[in-house]
């Protein structure tokens, strides 16, 4: 079975922890290899030639979580990586994370990226996730990956219309 490719950023360690546990779940329970790039640790841009899923925690400037403060900070390098050589065209979706205490700001950055780049917002998880999140998110990733692969194979184009 083809591997799951992940592009993500982790600043506080929560997303990196989640990706580590998700990788272990994929490898032990699904027997699927995971390849991942943390853009904080590997900031040099490369062209991604295989389909991938992105993970993005919400780091926003100021605000009260309800009606202001929606300016992304600290994670913009992931957007730059997606723009590099049109990497976003091979992204079949994004998964957001954050702290639900921040109300509307929870996972907001990932929702903004989905709109900006034209790929699906798949789902989200809080902080480091829970044991229930790993199979749920693995299922979602495989579903979106398979849909993306099917659309690109059948139509010969990247499905996000760009």
The gist of it:
36% of the residues lie in helices and 21% in strands. It has four helices and seven strands; from the N terminus they run βαββββαβαβα.
Q: Helices and strands in order, then pairings?
A:
Elements: E1 4-8, H1 14-30, E2 34-38, E3 52-57, E4 60-61, E5 71-72, H2 76-83, E6 91-98, H3 108-117, E7 121-126, H4 133-155
Parallel strand pairs: 1-2, 1-3, 3-6, 6-7
Antiparallel strand pairs: 4-5
Helix pairs in contact: 1-4
Protein name: Class Ib ribonucleoside-diphosphate reductase assembly flavoprotein NrdI
InterPro entries: Flavoprotein-like_sf, RNR_NrdI
Pfam families: Flavodoxin_NdrI (PF07972)
Structure description:
The chain is α/β, with parallel strands linked by helices and 162 residues long. It has a single domain, classed as Flavodoxin domain (Rossmann fold), CATH 3.40.50.360. Helix content is 36%, strand content 21%. It is built from 4 helices and 7 strands. It has a 5-stranded parallel sheet with strand order 2-1-3-6-7, sandwiched between helices. Strand 6, helix 3 and strand 7 form a beta-alpha-beta unit. Helix 1 packs across helix 4. The longest helix is centred in the last third of the chain and has 23 residues. The radius of gyration is 15 Å and the shape is globular. The relative contact order is 0.18.
């Amino acid at each position: 079975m083809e591997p799951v490719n992940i592009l993500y950023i982790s600043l506080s360690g929560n997303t990196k922890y989640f990706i580590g546990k998700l990788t272990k779940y994929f490898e032990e329970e699904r027997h699927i290899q995971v390849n991942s790039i943390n853009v904080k640790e590997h900031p040099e841009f490369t062209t991604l030639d295989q389909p991938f899923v992105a993970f993005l925690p919400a780091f926003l400037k100021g605000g009260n979580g309800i009606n202001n403060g929606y300016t992304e900070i600290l994670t913009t390098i992931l957007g730059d990586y997606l723009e590099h050589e049109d990497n976003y065209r091979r992204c079949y979706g994004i998964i957001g994370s954050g702290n639900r205490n921040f109300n509307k700001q929870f996972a907001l950055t990932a929702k903004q990226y989905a709109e900006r780049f034209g790929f699906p917002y798949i789902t989200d998880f809080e902080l480091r996730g829970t044991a229930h999140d790993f199979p749920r998110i693995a299922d979602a990733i495989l579903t979106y990956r398979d849909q993306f692969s099917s659309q690109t194979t059948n139509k010969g184009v990247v499905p996000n219309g760009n």
